[in-house]
Amino acid sequence: MKNNKTLYRQSHFLGTKIRNLRKRNNLTLEHLSARCVKIDPEEAPSVSYLSMIERGKRVPSEAMLLVIATVFQKELNWFLDDEPEPQDITPEKGNRGGISGIALEPSFLFSNDILQIAIPEMLSQTGTTGRQFAHLLIRAYQEHHQNHFPDLERAAESVGHKRMPLHVDDLLDIAKQVGLDVHWFERSEEHFIDEQGEPSNSIITSFFEPPNGVYLNQQLKQHVPRLKYDLAVHIGHCVLHNNDGMKSVMIAGKNQSLGLHQESHQQRAMTTLESQDILHAWRDFECSFFAGALLCPKVPFRQLLDRHGYEIQVSQMLDVSESVVMRRMTAVSPYPHWHYFDAYAPGKLKAVYRGNGIPLPWGNMRLVNDPCQHWSVFRMINSNTSGTCAQISILNQGDTPRIYCCESIKVADIADNRHVLCSGIDLNPALEAQGHDSVAIATELKQACIRHGGEANIPAPIKKILQSVAQILNIAWVERGINTQARLICSRGGECPREPKCYGQNCPDKSRFDVQQIQAEILASLGK
Asked: From 2.30.29.30, 3.40.50.970, 1.10.260.40, 3.40.50.720, which CATH number describes the 4-92 domain?
């Protein structure tokens, strides 16, 4: 028999495994407790005790664990295995986007008290600023909800009344109605050298001054889409936050996320996390989302996209930026599996949304040494082409090949920095919805690309299937992408699937000390 100390030592994943087993079998805590009572009333856990077990607050006795194991027809040791299969411990995410979650076990290491100490230490050691971490939290929340925020949509509709398009005069009238007092100032862009040693520009486009003052840069009059966006953001601050004074300075430029608060150089260099960082960043997100919903209200905007096949050029009909249109696509489309990048050379992502969980080609917190150059966003940055570019890509997500299609466009911000906007979708769920084996199709297309050095015309049978799916989705640039060559891409050059490989024949990862590989070599040399 195992004593309680032994059980405690082996219980790291116990609560998570019980919780996931219960949910996969569609049992509530009440149902599971009742099932246990039928087996052994004396040792069966109560509902509250089961809840504490699942949250890692309690460790059951061996007798109680045997009762739970009997319900699920598992051996007791299965619950105490400290190297379980991933599907046994990974939280279910359904069809949500973003990167996969992990089980927070041992749970006592993830208590609020420990995290409040560990997170600032982690940020300090990694050089991550509090603001960067705040935006990472918000992005995860946004992706988990797949960009659906009905309360913000309703708030925008309450002042915009679903009118589309809204002109500058309309927005000025709304600003007046909600109590904002608009002023104008003159300021040109600032020139500087960024952290990568590249020349860059930034310009303050607008700011809020309590109690109700909105100050707009005169240069916005020559950039109407950006003027409308800034006005919509400040209206959002008034409607959502009652002009409480905490509103960002709006800045356009490569090294400034839109809506960052004014910070000194010393503050920007600090990696401390202040509670107000989270609040400010969240309010920036709310105001930005509100602005998109005000300028492109959900129902009429979706109808417009349907009529025009989700073409980016609808931005010209509404006199809004391509960025607003492409971000709103991810929020209003009935198809949920979208991603969106806003990328600056040589490798900075200023805005990211990954509702389809696509890996990042590079980071918005650090540069990587071996980014895959075959991503559409990379190719567009490094070319002098104009207009839009559609691309079909095959990319492994874990061990599963997936087919993505994206549309990219190169634009210039108000500070004249060139950058690339990219919206895309994961086609695997659309293929599955039509009864096709998406993994088999993606694998076949991947092999065709490998045989041709990484790029290939789409084989006729697959092309026919993809064209059918594109018509069902009603996205014109998916059809255009199908008529070009499909390309193999990877998240890092060291994972290159091409032959010959882009980063050398063997692509060894010399940046990592591979203990398991060394251990295997030692055992092999000893004949083990």
From this structure: 1.10.260.40
